[in-house]
Amino acid sequence: MSKEKYNTLFKLVKKTINEWDPIGVLPEALADEYEFEVAQIVTLLNKVDTEEALSEGIAEIFNKALGCHYTVEECLPIAREIRILTE
Q1: Which of 28, 14, 24, 4 minimizes the C-alpha distance to 85?
Q2: CA distance 57 to 65
Q3: Dihedral (CA of 45, 64, 78, 10) sign
Q4: Positions in the chain whose pLDDT score sits under 70
Q5: pLDDT value at residue 25
Q6: Partner of 82 at 20 to 30 A CA spacing, among 12, 17, 29, 34?
Q7: What is residue 45's predicted lDDT score, i.e. its pLDDT?
Q8: What is the sign of the dihedral through the CA atoms of 49, 51, 55 and 56?
Q9: Could you count the other beta carbons within 10 Å of the beta carbon of residue 46?
Q10: Rounded distance, CA 67 to CA 46, Å?
Q11: To the nearest 5 percent, what fractions of the chain are helix, strand and coil?
């Protein structure tokens, strides 16, 4: 993936994740609150073929990084939105 494509995807995914705000800290927290997780999601986009697989990855990323307990089903709307924005 080119640096330009990565940066474009990063911005789109970051906007989506910030709007979702999975742990409810925005706007009080810094705008870069979820950047570590966003970077992982952008990388994941090249490895998965379905919304379900992306949803599973998103749940795993946030559950590990933030101690959340998101299910694949709870992350599916976010995965769908990300897939639509990044295709």
Answers
A1: 14
A2: 12
A3: negative
A4: none
A5: 81
A6: 29
A7: 95
A8: negative
A9: 10
A10: 25
A11: 70, 0, 30
What is the predicted pLDDT for the residue at 31?
A: 76
Question: 10 with 42: CB under 8 angstroms?
Answer: yes
Task: Say how far apart CA 6 and CA 33 lie, in whole Å.
Answer: 19
Rounded to the nearest 10 degrees, what angle do helices 72-86 and 51-66 cross at? Answer: 120
82, two tokens = 């990300």
> What span, in angstroms and rounded, lies between the C-alpha atoms of 53 and 5?
21
Length of the chain: 87
Q: How far is CA 42 from the centre of its chain?
A: 7
> What is the C-alpha separation between 87 and 9, in angstroms, rounded?
10
Q: pTM here?
A: 0.91
**Using an 8 Å Cβ cutoff, are 59 and 72 in contact?**
yes
| Angle (CA) 12 81 63, round 5° | 85
Measure the CA–CA gap between 55 and 78, rounded to whole angstroms.
7
